[in-house]
Amino acid sequence: MKTFSENIESDIDVHEPKDTKNNIEISFDMELQLFGINHKTTKLSERELFIINDSNQEDFKNFFQGTFGDSIDSFFALSTCNRTEVYIYGSLSDATNIAQQTLEFFGSGDSLNDNLYFFRGDEAIEHMCNVATGLDSQVLGEQEILGQFKKSIQTYIAFGSLKGELQRLSDDIISIAKAARTETKIGFNPLSVSGLSLKIVQEIFEDPAQQKLTILGAGQMALSVIENFHDNGIKNINAVNRTKKTLTINSTLSLETIHLSQLGLLIQNTDILVTSINSPLPIIGKGLIEQAMKERKNKPMLLIDLGVPRNIEDQVRDLEHAYLFTIEDIELVTQENLEERSIEASKAKNLIQSRIKFLNQDKAGKNMRNDAYAALKNASINIDEQDFFELLKSDDPYASLEQMRVVSEDELQCISTLTPHAILSMIKEIRSA
């Protein structure tokens, strides 16, 4: 497949939509739409009501296909600590009803309906590019979102629900996001949630390297935290997971996880507890931390909850010597180099808009060639063998077709967009098929 970066004047593959019963060309009024909530529209306690993750992803996919399959060609969803969004490609007039039914499926319709935002067409593409680039994140320019975006795409391709035009658009969006991150400085010295978590540790502890870290979770965020902390001198690290697992951090570092049942004992000797695990309810309650603090003789403990929904009860804040930070709290430490990042973000947004314009030109070029191909196919039906051979010898095949009166004025207009060589190549291909 050719992407937005390839010249629209080059030869392209022509894909003909057909009615399989009657073998006639048809067209569909398909459009990209999206809906969602994010940190700008919805506070963390409300975002927790609409999360699509490993625990419910397949249920969501089955609900969505079963309920809206007649009007939707393709879809996928993305949930991160900042947002949950659903991307749809289909012959639908409005996504509002679909969004409302989706929230009802998650049991959150009444509380979140007013927080939803909607985009369609080019605005939807631009928004998706901003999301994938990190320009729509709470941490401006954060680097982890592109990986999350790609993982979501891969998951829904495997489900069979992301395909066709939306899959091609997603590929282009990833290419645009990569270009925005590499061709501007938004991707230089990138901030990340794990990096900001380390910054909190460094501000609270005089000697972070002497602290004992426990990480709850075994996903990409947990791996990023372990690597970041280890590279910055924190070597005493335990990882906890629901099942025993070997975490390969990089070529030189790996850890064996400890079973979740041992967490209560483990945190009694933990100075820094970082959580990032998928769970509909908090795993760590106030009572557990209160008991740990007694065993620690009130030695301070830092807790960083990167889970959405949250992994740690908010009441832990009430405990003396226990310092809890959530995703929302991390916003307080995102101001470093903000002015410089904002300038680069503006450049990245301009690049995105330019690439989308080029993408549309590419698509328009393909559509014109598809229309011209269809017109030539119709002309071929009405040309006898003698006229066909005369056409092949013509220096001006367009004028010859016009004289033969084998196509309509509208079809002639479509054919006029092609070069003489393209006209002859296409009609030879059609006749030989």
What can you tell me about this protein's structure?
By secondary structure, the protein is of the alpha/beta class. It contains 17 helices and 14 strands. The strands form 4 sheets. It has a 6-stranded parallel beta sheet with strand order 11-8-7-12-13-14. A hairpin with a 2-residue loop joins strand 9 and strand 10. Helix 8 packs across helix 9. The longest helix is centred in the C-terminal third of the chain and has 44 residues. It is elongated and about 100 Å long. The N terminus is likely disordered.
Please describe the structure with a list of short key phrases separated by commas or semicolons.
4-stranded antiparallel β-sheet; 433 residues; 14 strands; single chain; elongated; alpha/beta; 6-stranded parallel β-sheet
Estimated radius of gyration: 28 Å
Characterize the overall form: elongated
Helix % is 40-55%
Which stretches are poorly predicted, pLDDT < 50 over at least 5 residues? 1-28
State the strand order across the main sheet: 11-8-7-12-13-14
Number of helices: 17
Described by strand count, sense and barrel closure, the largest sheet is: 6 strands, parallel
Backbone structural class: alpha/beta
The fraction of residues assigned to DSSP E strands is: 15-25%
- Whole-number mean pLDDT: 87
Strand count: 14
Distance between the termini: 22 Å
